[in-house]
Amino acid sequence: MPDETNATAPDSAKAPRRLPKLPSRLGLTRRALAVLSVLIVLALSYANSLRIYLDQQRDLAEANQQIQERTARIAQLEDEVQRWNDPAYIKAQARERLGWLLPGETGYRVIGPDGKPLGSGVVLDSTSELPPGEHPAMWFDRLWGSVETADNPTRRVGR
Predict the structure, then answer these.
(1) Is the pLDDT confidence value at 74 over 90?
(2) Which ranges of the chain would DSSP assign to H, the alpha helix?
(3) How far is CA 101 from CA 33, 83, 91, 94, 98, in A?
(4) Mind listing the pLDDT tens digit for each residue in 13-55?
(5) Residue 148 is assigned to a structural domain of this protein
(6) 3-state secondary structure of 130
(7) Which residue has the higher pLDDT, 127 or 61?
(8) Is 74 within a domain?
(9) 48, part of any domain
(10) Looking at residue 24, what is its pLDDT?
(11) 145: left (phi over 0), alpha (psi -120 to 50) or beta
């Protein structure tokens, strides 16, 4: 027996080791591979179509939302136009916003501790600030600007 092990040992050392053989086929025929590739292409094309469909549905929902918002805004503006067509509403707005009074009425304005009028009404705010580095236009700059405008009048279309 020692001869047999010695005899086989040099043979196994000389012979390369063989790895287990992987199956050369996955068990699929050419027809099955063709069907599988067609199914993959169809799935990809349907996925793209589905994405486009969902994008269009989202855009449609956004458009419908904008239509509803604009319809509500139009209804508000039409209601405001109807109110402005009422002479009583115009008188009330003139009294409130401009402080107008009818002949014979006495108007009062309540002044707060800070020296500003209290209550509703339009208050003109003339505290506009210029950007840093700019100065308000002097009177002679405004005068010269009106002279330049008079020299180059803008022409209206049709005249």
Answers:
(1) yes
(2) 2-14, 30-84, 87-93, 139-151
(3) 92, 21, 9, 9, 9
(4) 566 677 666 555 566 788 888 899 999 999 998 999 999 999 9
(5) no
(6) coil
(7) 61
(8) yes
(9) yes
(10) 59
(11) alpha
Longest CA–CA separation in the chain, Å: 141
DSSP 87-121: HHHHHHHIIIII----TT------B-TTSSB-SSS
Query: Is residue 83 one of the residues assigned to a domain?
Result: yes
Full domain range(s) for residue 58: 29-103
What is the pLDDT, as a whole number, of residue 13? 57
Backbone phi and psi for residue 67, each to the nearest 5 degrees, phi listed first: -65, -45
pTM above 0.85, yes or no: no
Quickly state the pLDDT bin for 71 (edges 50, 70, 90): very high
Number of separate domains in the chain: 1
